[in-house]
């Protein structure tokens, strides 16, 4: 249980806390933050801060593990699991709140499970699937889109540009493309052994 794995576990532990603030009904909180047409409740602001904190640890644990030669099998299992749990939990919560279309959440979550399955097949064959360029872009776009949805499109709400909607659509499209990219580049793993 080294430092990178502890950081990853901390990311997992932040998920229920984030959901508590995101989905809880906190009538005792002060009035929502209001600025013209913009409005954001304090509990959703706290949930957004927790999400950004958790998402920021994604690169930190991997960087420390590689730089200081602390890569472990536990870390290889926990890191992608933590990412998928974080994204899945917040997307399902956003669907519950009516801020994200359910089909987008289904597409993104399904891709994550499909690529995880492909990674497991690769491991059984003794191969390691490195993160692709499109996979990294997908992660960044998802984090930006989810953050904008959590913050009610701040600051673009003031100029009436639905950047949150555009970003989540972009995240869905890039997620689909990156998933296809993984399967095309690793199609030999899916071929049946006729021997």
TrEMBL record:
Its EC number is 2.7.8.5. The chain crosses the membrane at residues 12-29, 41-60, 139-160, 166-184. Its main location: membrane. It catalyses: a CDP-1,2-diacyl-sn-glycerol + sn-glycerol 3-phosphate = a 1,2-diacyl-sn-glycero-3-phospho-(1'-sn-glycero-3'-phosphate) + CMP + H(+). Pathway: Lipid metabolism; Phospholipid metabolism; phosphatidylglycerol biosynthesis; phosphatidylglycerol from CDP-diacylglycerol: step 1/2. One of its GO terms (biological process) is glycerophospholipid biosynthetic process. It is a multi-pass membrane protein. It is found in: Cell membrane. InterPro entries: CDP-alcohol_PTase-I, CDP-OH_P_trans, CDP-OH_PTrfase_TM_dom, CDP_ALCOHOL_P_TRANSF_CS, Phosphatidylglycerol_P_synth. GO terms for cellular component: plasma membrane. One of its GO terms (molecular function) is CDP-diacylglycerol-glycerol-3-phosphate 3-phosphatidyltransferase activity. Keywords: Cell membrane, Lipid biosynthesis, Lipid metabolism, Membrane, Phospholipid biosynthesis, Phospholipid metabolism, Transferase, Transmembrane, Transmembrane helix. The keyword Transmembrane applies. Belongs to the CDP-alcohol phosphatidyltransferase class-I family. This protein catalyzes the committed step to the synthesis of the acidic phospholipids. This is CDP-diacylglycerol--glycerol-3-phosphate 3-phosphatidyltransferase. The gene is pgsA.
């Amino acid at each position: 249980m080294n430092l990178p794995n502890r950081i990853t576990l901390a990311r997992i532990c932040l998920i229920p806390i984030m959901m508590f603030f995101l989905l809880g009904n906190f009538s005792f909180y002060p009035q929502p933050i209001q600025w013209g047409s913009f409005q954001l409740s304090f509990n959703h602001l706290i949930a957004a801060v927790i999400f950004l904190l958790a998402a920021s640890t994604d690169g930190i644990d991997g960087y420390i593990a590689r730089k200081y030669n602390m890569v472990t099998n536990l870390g290889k299992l926990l890191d992608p699991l933590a990412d998928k749990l974080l994204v899945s939990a917040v997307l399902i919560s956003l669907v519950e709140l009516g801020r994200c279309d359910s089909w987008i959440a289904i597409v993104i979550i399904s891709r994550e499970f499909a690529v995880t399955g492909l990674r497991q097949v690769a491991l059984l064959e003794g191969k390691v699937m490195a993160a692709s360029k499109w996979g990294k872009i997908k992660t960044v776009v998802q984090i930006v889109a989810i953050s904008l949805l959590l913050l009610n499109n701040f600051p673009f709400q003031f100029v009436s540009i639905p950047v949150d909607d555009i970003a989540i659509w972009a995240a869905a499209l890039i997620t689909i493309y990156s998933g296809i990219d993984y399967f095309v580049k690793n199609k030999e793993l899916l071929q049946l052994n006729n021997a």
